Amino acid sequence: VTLAYAKNGHPELAAGYTMTVTEPYTGDLPLVLALAAGATLIVALLASLMITALALAEGRADFATLAAVGAQPATRRRIAASTAAFVTVVGGIVGAISGLIIGRLLNSLVNSDYPNIFVVPWLMLAVTLIGIPALTGALAWLFTRSRVVMVRRRD
């Protein structure tokens, strides 16, 4: 849409000057970002839950000892949830820092017209650093058995 303003109210847009107003770009970028966020969520959940399962399997004898000395059954769930959340937070911090560095470098290479313009995706960072660890901890807490099967230790 091209508009030509008269002298009233806009002296800088007097006769002979025009102003062009265009619609903002609405491409496929939101869809691509949503797919990237979904893939990140799935990979982070699977990796951290797998690490949590391995840590719980490794600590089976320790959980039996805790149960033998009178620890509450929910202790195992709390340990699983905190392990999952911690692993996911550490992985999210490392991934976010490396992703921002790589994104900044690629932006300066690809966007040669405006190399200093870099937009930080705050929503994706918040999801990566807060949402995914909370979801992972909640899933680990929900799906971990409270009671541990008592085993006899051999020395």
Would you write up a description of this structure?
The chain is mostly helical. It has four helices and two strands. Strands 1-2 form a two-stranded antiparallel sheet. Helix 1 (29-58) runs antiparallel to helix 3 (74-110) and helix 3 packs antiparallel against helix 4 (122-143). The longest helix has 37 residues, at 74-110. The radius of gyration is 27 Å and the shape is elongated.
Secondary structure layout:
Layout: E1 2-3, E2 19-20, H1 29-58, H2 60-68, H3 74-110, H4 122-143
Antiparallel strand pairs: 1-2
Provide keyphrases for this structure.
155 residues, disordered N terminus, elongated, mainly alpha, 2 strands, two-stranded antiparallel ribbon, single chain
What number is the mean pLDDT? 81
Low-confidence stretches: 1-7
Strand order of the largest sheet: 1-2
Radius of gyration: 27 Å
Counted beta strands: 2
N-C termini distance: 84 Å
Total DSSP helices: 4
Structural class: mainly alpha
Strand and helix order: EEHHHH
Estimated helix fraction: 55-70%
Largest sheet: 2 strands, antiparallel
Strand proportion, as a percent range, falls in under 5%
Q: What is the 3D form? A: elongated
TL;DR of this structure?
The chain has helices at residues 29-58, 60-68, 74-110, 122-143, and strands at residues 2-3, 19-20.
